[in-house]
Amino acid sequence: MMRRLLISAALAVVLSACGPSAEQSASTQSAAEAPVAAPAAAPAAPAPNAEEIQAALAALPAPYNEGDYEAGRRVFAQCRSCHTIEAGAPNRVGPNLHGVFGREIGSLEGFNYSQAVQDADFVWDGAQLDHWLANPQSFLPGNRMAFAGVRNETQRRDLIAYLMVESAPAP
């Protein structure tokens, strides 16, 4: 009973630090004050069609040119909680992956990398990412990526092909 009371009190303190409730905000806002609208988001680039995706895949180096884009997109769903891939998107727990291929490990501006990543010396390419994704902890011991890896070789190939297409800088 005492433990529940302590947990409830701690939760109330944490929630109160998040700002006023919607009811409190509505009661203190005068009729003359209109809510401020969020700025309009930049229009998103049109999604590539099936032919454009196939052409992009065909232009990739082997074995990624045989990857399945949709299967890779589904595998990337596991990554989305920690990584963004869109140009200009923020870092999350992990860095934004836009433009990752050809980038030196640990070099994305504004992301706080582990010492293991800071001390590593290579440029991301398909082979490096394949080894990383197979088992991040054995590939680079001491990194902070809390992900067991993608053990299935075909899923890794599809994921890397998807990333190569989606993370490429615009021409």
CATH topology of the domain at 50-166: Cytochrome Bc1 Complex, Chain D, domain 2
Count of DSSP-assigned helices: 8
Please, what is the CATH homologous superfamily of the domain at 50-166?
Cytochrome c-like domain
Write the element-wise H/E pattern from the N-terminal end onward: HHHHHHHH
Number of DSSP-assigned strands: 0
Q: Which structural class best describes the helix and strand composition?
A: mainly alpha
Uncertain segments are 1-42
Approximately what portion of the residues adopt beta-strand conformation? Answer: under 5%
Describe the fold and architecture.
The chain is an all-alpha fold. The protein has a domain at 50-166: Cytochrome c-like domain (Cytochrome Bc1 Complex, Chain D, domain 2, Orthogonal Bundle), CATH 1.10.760. Helices cover 42% and strands 0% of the residues. It is built from 8 helices and no strands. The protein has helices spanning 2-16, 22-28, 50-58, 69-76, 115-119, 126-134, 136-139, 153-166. The radius of gyration is 22 Å and the shape is globular. It starts with a helix and ends in a 5-residue tail after the last helix.
